[in-house]
Amino acid sequence: MQATARRNIELSLLILALIVGAGAMALVALARDSEDVVEIAPYLVVLSVVYVAAHIAMRKLAKQGDHMILPLTAVLNILGLSAVYRLDASQYGPSQLTWTILGVALFVGTLAVVRDFRILARFKYILGFVGVGLLLLPLAPGIGATINGARLWVRAGPLSFQPGELAKLCLVIFFAAYLAERKELLAIASRRVAGLHFPDIKHFGPLLVMWGISLSVMFFEKDLGSSLLFFSIFIVMLYMATARIAYVVVGGGLFAVGAMIGYTVFTHVQDRVSVWFNVFDPKLVNDEGFQLAQSLFALATGGLFGTGLGQGQPQRIPEAHTDFIFSVIGEELGLVGTTAVLLCFILLIARGLRAALQSRDDFGQLLAAGLISIFALQSFIILGGVTRLLPLTGITLPFMSYGGSSLLSNYILMALLVRISDQTTSEPDPAHTAEILVGGRR
Amino acid sequence: MQPQIRRVGVLLIVLMLLVFANLNYVQIFAAEGIAENPANYRALLAEAAIKRGTIVTADGVTLARSVETNQDLKYRRVYPEGELYGPITGYYNLINGTRAGIENAYNEQLLGDSGVLTMQDFEDRFLESGAQGDDVQLTIDSRLQELASSSLGQQNGAVVALDPNSGDVRAMWGFPSYDPNPLSSYDKKEALDYHATLEPRAPDSPLIGKVARRLYPPGSTFKVITTAAALESGEYRPDSTFPDPDSIDLPLTDQGLTNFTKTSCQGGGQIDLFTALQISCDTTFALIGLQIPGELKDTAEDFGFNSPIPFDLTTDTSTFPDIPDDEEPLRAYAGIGQGDVAATPLQMALVAAAVANGGQVPRPRIVKEVIDPRGGVVERYSPETIGRVMTSEHAEDVKDMMLAVVQSDSGTGTAAQIPGVEVAGKTGTAQSAEGAAPHAWFIAFAPANDPQIAVAVLVENGGSVGSEATGGAVAAPIAKAIIERDRELRGW
Which structural domain, as residue segments, surrounds residue A394? Predict the structure, then answer.
């Protein structure tokens, strides 16, 4: 596709996203008080300016970049913002708007700074250390903070952020670079056990290290969601790099062991599981199960079409604006609304996979696939949690939940995907012949 | 690497589709069940947004209605008449999800959820005029209810009056009663505090409506049933004679069964059945109890004992015991409504009504109609009978005996005499607990030639008179007042 055609489609989709978002914001304001409609005008102006600016920047910085990623993130972000604004127009709403501006700025900034994604591979060890450091930062005395029972925050003065959100980016880049370099080595199978090709025992080292880090996140930060996420993304990327099911089997086994340990050691893990099974037990429904029960009540009340934006009672869900933002959508926009949101997520995942599959180099493929996998897995863990498909673990829903750390890191993530897709299309293809010669591309 | 990426990609999309499938379950298929959970405040809000139907008496007095609150919970329940109709209207506590009385039994109709989709429902939906429930009209006459309450006064007891032809309950009062207003409060503490003052666990808590839910030994009023059993057995007629001793020896015990007066009933010779009922001779009916135990039990069960009375409100089942062979004295006591025989005032009113109704027990009703907000009748109840207890000839015989109880000067119920009206009745003075004053009973119907009203009155432990009380002295005047008032009101 021509670069201009691509960008024009992007612009029209972006306008569509802004119209949808404006409608959502207007409904929310109208439902509260018709006088408030004026109050949303600055939101709409700021959002339009910010996204159109991002679009213009892409015309300069990533002419051939994927044209659906920005409109899809915009629609999710604005829908999330209107839900946050609907829950708390005075504090969270304006604050989320600020984070959105910063997030889009960071998206553009990433595109401007990272002109060639391959540069990132050079910093792989630095990024790896930074990632692990960020992950364990909340444990540092003085700056670490426990919020809602999980120690995954870092506080500096009035600002607090979740370094885990940024850590996931650093670690995925590190994994991608590391695995792209070592994949042949790690894929060598020395034995066959039960029909599986097993690599040499020493190649399981990295898996064990990652397992250890995940376990310490679970043990010391009491953050089940992130622990689950980091370990599974590593297994997924290891598999993609090596095609060895053996890693998945052994990783799954380690994961099961970790889960068993967590279940035995932590009462809050046991609580989560018993709530998952018996959320409507009269003993739990107003106690440990209150939050999940309220989420399910919201979704059930929403039914097919929902109560209409601003017409429901989603404020009855504790922490609705962060982990449970999806249930707010479910109550007020019904199954129709949740399906639309889910489709946006599926489309974004599909665009990410496309960027991965089209990339012509190992690092690019692994990086794009890793980034979109961690995005998808995180979305799945929290969507499954609030709908009782999985035991609930508190992590944010990308682009929709209130919170700066999550928004900023997901914009960087999308910028990297755009960069990979842009380079794949725009670069003349000298590597192509070279790759065929060395047989690097399968 | 593409094959693996593709596989992972498929997995990721499948995970999202799992979420989609689960959403269909939570938001559509299981939605109703989930949303109806009592812990869902949204369900509370939705229910409070319905303008619940009113409960009115037959003469149009509003007993319960919904008023706007201008708060989160849009409507709340008000009971203008308070205690006077406590156990009838019951209460409606939305916050705790507890209900009683008509509020409970007719909850669906009052919420407008009776399953019949009317034009009104469509209007509500399209005009957004707000959902409105159906009204429930009772058979109770507020003026008779007021009289029942004022005649019983501060005495613990129960009064119930019903039309023996239709079964319509025209008054139903027990003292003490309770006020449904605080019990229906949205202020949780107010409701709980008031609830606690009613001693909900005590057997005599005012929360338990006395007319339909308290069991008392029926005493001599039960002799009407014993008489019916005697006649139905074919072995006795009104002029059948019995010995008239001071007391009768009971097998297996060294104690005898003594008459109320501690003497013979009529000088110690013979006494016939007619006279025995008229003057309430215990020994006669104790003898019948010993002679025809099987028939007595069957007849009592025909009258409604040992099975729940079909009624709009919760009832307790009156009991006639299964007496084992080695407990023969209990049979004698059963014949005079003592021992393990226990009945609700409602049951005893039905005994009077059955005699009045030619031997057929009417099915009691307290709800006359259910009316939709536009005035259309949704449900109307027609008279039914529970069953026949005796032939109309025997009913006629019993009626004559009950007439004699009131109308003849030697009867025990003369206090119920009304000039110009033939009142048929039966007194009861029932031993309750050891050392406690007896319960005073009176059951009656009038006029005897064309019965319009049947009444049961129970005054616990003799009421204001105490141990000197008899049914004739304490309960009969109340029944008389009810009958007179009903005559005034309906002009029969």
Answer: 3-438
